[in-house]
Each structure stands twice: as C-alpha cells, then as structure tokens.
Amino acid sequence: MWYEYLYQVLSIINYIVLIIIGVPLLVQILYVLFAWVKKKTYPKSEKTAKIAYLIPAHNEADVIYDTVLDALNSQDYPKDCYDIFVVAHNCTDDTAKLAKEAGAIVLELNDPDPEHRKAAYPLKHGVNHILKLDKYDMVIHLDADNHMNKEFSRLMSDAYFSGVDFARPYEGAINATTNFYTKACTLFYTFDSRYGSRVRERLNIAAHINGSGAMMSTRMLKACGGYDSVTISDDAEFNFNRMLEGYKGHYVEDAVVYEDMPSSYEDTLNRNKRIFNGSVNLLKPKLLKMLGKFFTTGRISYLEMFLSYIFIFLTFVLCTWIPLYYIYDFVFLALVNNGTIPVSLFSISYYDAVMWNTIYAACGILLSLFIFFGFLQGLVLVLIDYKKMGAKSPKEMLSAAFLFPCFLFIYVITICAGAFSKSNWNKIKRNVKK
Predict the structure, then answer these.
(1) Residue 161 phi, psi dihedral angles, 5° rounding
(2) What domains lie within the chain, and their CATH numbers?
(3) For the chain, what is the radius of gyration of the CA atoms?
(4) What is the pLDDT of residue 278?
(5) From CA 32, how far away is CA 12, in angstroms rounded?
(6) Neighbours of 276 (CB within 10 A)
(7) 115, 185, 294, 313: which could form a disulfide with 302 (CB 3.0–4.6 Å)?
(8) How far apart are the C-alpha atoms of 97 and 24, rounded to whole Å?
(9) pLDDT digits over 91-134, tens only?
C-alpha cells in the first residue's frame, strides 16, 4: 500500500531530523556534565589598563543616570583610568542631559535613516570616536541598564595584560527575583556563563561573546577597522567576524555584569525575535563559513560555534516538523491497529509494537531531559551561583529551578516566532526597581 511506503519514508526522515537535533543538544548536556572543572583566572597585573565604557542609548532617561553613576562610583579601580561614554541615538527625551549630569561623556547621534535604528550604529559611532582619541586600551560595551560588580574593571584589565583582546563576563540579573520570567531568563543566561563558558575556557574553545559587558581591545578594533557589524544581532556578528579572522574570545568568570531580564511573555518574545532574526542574517554569509573553517583548520571552536547557533534554527523544526510528524504517526498507527487501514508490508502486531515503543521512548527521553536538563541543572546552578545571578539567597530562585522546563518550552516557542516576524530596535521596556 502506498501509504505504508509513505510512512516508512517519513519515519526515516524523522530519524535523521532527531539525530540533527540531538547533536547540538548533546554538546549542551556535556557542558553540564563537565561543569565541575575549575574556573580559569588570569594573573593579577601590576599595570592598569585605560578603559572606555561605551553605552548606546535610545530614549533611556528612566535608567541612564543610575547606570552611569553606578559605573563611575562602584568600581574598585583608579578613577582616572576609565571613562563612561554614552551615545544618545535619536533620543527625544532627556537621555543625553541625564547621562552628562551623572558624569558621562555624551555623544549625540541624530541619524534619520530608518535602517540605522539599531544598537550597532551608535556602537560604531562610539567606537570610532574612542579610537580617534588614541588613549584607551579597551572598549567595554554596556547596555543602558547594566551594573557591574566592583572587581569588573580590574579583572578585565588583568585579562588584557595576559594577552586577551576579546572577552565576555559572567551574566547576572538586576531583577532576577521579580517574577517567573525574570527568574527563568536569569537561569537561562547564567546557564551559559556557569556551564558552557567555563567549560569552553578550560578546553581552550572560543567563548561566545555577545551582549552586555563584552570587552574589545583597541589594538584589535584598530586592526579590524573599528566596529564592523550592523545587523540586528551585531554583537553575535562581531564575534563571528573576529573568529573568522583568527581571534579567540575568552571568558572572565569573576567579572559579573548585571542586566535587566525580560519580565513578561511579550518581553521574552521581543528579545527572542531579535535573536532569531539576527541568526538568520548570520546564517547566510557567516555560519556556513564557520563550519568551513572547522574543516580547513581542524579547530573545534568553529564547529562548536556552528552547532550552538544552528540549534536556534532547529527550534523551528521542533515547533513544526516534530509535532506534525508525531500527530501523523499516532493517527496512522491507531488507524492500522483498529483495522481501519489495511496493511501488507508488515503485520498489525508490528505496527502496534512500533506505537508503544514510540510512546515509551518519547516519554523516557522527555522525562530524562526535563529532570536532567531542566530541574537538576537549574537546581545546581541556583545553589552554587545565586549571588552572581543577583539573588540574596538560593530560596529566592528555587521556584525557577522547578519551573525551568516550562520556560524552556516557552523559549523554543518564542524563538520560533522570530521566523514569522521582523524585529526592530525600539525603546525597550525596563523593569529595574529603583
């Protein structure tokens, strides 16, 4: 019967899809298994680097004053060795005025081009200005709501004098304990800091440098012609560009940047739409080059980066092929087992066994992933790193550990939604408590 042949063909395709999904997922599981490795630290340097903190800001009057003031006063670092630059990009509020009052060096950028309404353009403008001054050793990108631990500048300086040109910090949260979404988002982002980034650093695999707290040496920026990324996910693109040129990103674990986490489904959706759209832009020209670099150089960093980003696209498969196939699969098997559809290739007992084996396997895999990749890894993370997350005690974050599998489901759905929408750099809803 033709429908039996169709079923067999679709079954083979499904096995291939499951293998493709399983490979990058296995990498993430390995990071959890090897999370016990000792963190890497950089030797304390007698020298002190000159640091330019750069904040792109679009209508951030509600948070920019506190962010600048905190950055200037919280650092255990010589005050004459760092400055805060704020690029007020197409602002219609008091962002520039408040940033200046707080002590920042303010650059106002009025750019009418609607295609330039992205964080990349004020970053590019700020980096070009800082490089022309020729007085700083590094540029560190902050968002308008970020705070740092007091050791941040010193630790980045030590890494720089150890030969690091490109580095990321540990990502914590300002509003970690506000609600389900902020707790779950905090766990999700600190997962990569505590597990993935530490293991990569110890295994000499390049760090994933994107977002808040990214350190870029001026010697590297000069060599690559400044900030050369202008997509909606410019930070990830910049990371790809530097890797393809041979630069290796590093991880400075004890340097912690605290950021504002999404506090609602809408906030989570908007952030993940930007992630998916940005990854699509990376796929066409860069992601395949990353895979090609692995085959030409043999460096595992290129393969690991490829697998990590390709998983974003696989969320689309998880939300489309997987549910549609298994609905078809169970309907077909049920119709065969009750005699509605006659079969000739295999017996009814064979199809009955297939159905129950599929049910048992699916339940086993899902339960294992939820327990291991959801509950346990979240619980361990809460117990050992709650302070870096931004919580005062493990108890404040325990509910997030138990609800984390639910958030992973929401995360996959919202990432997939990016395939059907376009993301822009609009004013971001801030949830920081004052």
Answers:
(1) -75, -5
(2) 1-434 (3.90.550.10)
(3) 24
(4) 67
(5) 30
(6) 23
(7) 294
(8) 47
(9) 999 999 999 999 999 999 998 888 788 788 999 999 999 999 99
